[in-house]
Amino acid sequence: MLPFRGMRRSLAATLVAGAVLAAPAAHALEIKSSDVHPMGYPTTDAIQYMGELLNSWTSGRMDIKIFHSMQLGGEKEALEQVQLGALEMTRVSVGVVGPIVEEFNAFNLPYFFRSVEHMHKVVDGEIGTELLNKLEKGGLIGLGYMDAGSRSFYNNTRPITSIEDLKGLKIRVMQNPIFIEMVNSMGGNGLPISFSELYTSLQTGVVDGAENNPPSYESGKHYEVAKYYTLTEHLMVPEIFVFSKKVWDKLSPLDQQLIRKASVLAVEKERELWAARERKSLEAVKAMGYQVVTDIDKEPFIKATEPVRMKFGEKFADLIKRAAAVK
Fold first, then answer.
1. Of 92, 161, 199, 279, which has the highest C-beta tally within 10 A?
2. How far is the C-alpha of 226 from the C-alpha of 224, rounded, in Å?
3. Whose CA is closest to 312, among 211, 182, 150, 131?
4. What is the dihedral of CA 30, 31, 35, 39, to 10 degrees?
5. Which residues are CB-contacts of 2 (< 8 A; sequence separation ≥ 6)?
6. CB 171, CB 209: distance < 8 Å
7. In a 10 Å sphere around its CB, with 0-12 CB exposed, 13-18 middle and 19+ buried, how is residue 19 labelled?
């Protein structure tokens, strides 16, 4: 499979149109797809768009039925169903597929990606394609990468305008040793706390702040108890959507081609929706009078977290080097 970067929208449309016109009769296919997010979220809306494309291209022969809001369980449960062939497709965090292809765990390292643009170039290029292809050994067909936002710091003590401002702050992180040491390396004190307990922990001073993407900060109303948000963008962890290899192997080459082309366009749609969602969240927070620091020198943060990348990324040294070389 060619890197996704080489699959342009016009080429996809041309190939699909030609393939459909030349297609022999085939069986109807309803693709069942799972997501923990509700409808109206960028990932579910993108999959819905993918279904509309397939439906249009095949005159209703192929379609997607979305089981949203954890109707089929969490990400791990959905992935297992896809591996078994009981479910055709699902969208999951890369951490869930780490046990299958451990290189995906490298994406959890701080500042693995320099920017959103750099992330897109890496995952849409040779590196991202190689990792998706490795999923086949786990019974999965990797279809593409979706954005899940950039995680940044927020707190209720002071605006973070430099790395020195993190010193001594108690920052909530996910229960992952990488993230704890990441905050500690920057001078803060990383404390693993459940997301469901975060608002109260901020309100009562158990922690001074946390880190997450703008939509989570805004939709969770964390600005009420943490009025300073700084775009450090220390973590950019993409998500993926995968198809069952057991089902895939039974599809015609044409149907496989159509699904791949629709996947490319679904990725474009999701990224557009996510970028718009982030802008809307930041604008809403600013409009309410809360402070968002956007102009910050990230180099000290990148330098401070180098020991974390070396410690937890030792086995991924070659991957880190290759990704860093992507311009």
1. 92
2. 6
3. 182
4. -40
5. 129
6. yes
7. middle
Tokens for 300?
Answer: 């000290």
Note whether 80 and 24 are within 8 A (CB). no
For residues 150 and 161, what is the distance between their CA atoms, to the nearest angstrom? 17
From first to last of its 327 residues, the chain has per-residue pLDDT tens of: 545 445 445 445 555 555 444 444 568 999 999 999 999 999 999 999 999 999 999 999 999 999 999 999 999 999 999 999 999 999 999 989 999 999 999 999 999 999 999 999 999 999 999 999 999 999 999 999 999 999 999 999 999 999 999 999 999 999 899 999 999 999 999 999 999 899 999 999 999 999 999 999 999 999 999 999 999 999 999 999 999 999 999 999 999 999 999 999 999 999 999 999 999 999 999 999 999 999 999 999 999 999 999 999 999 999 999 999 999
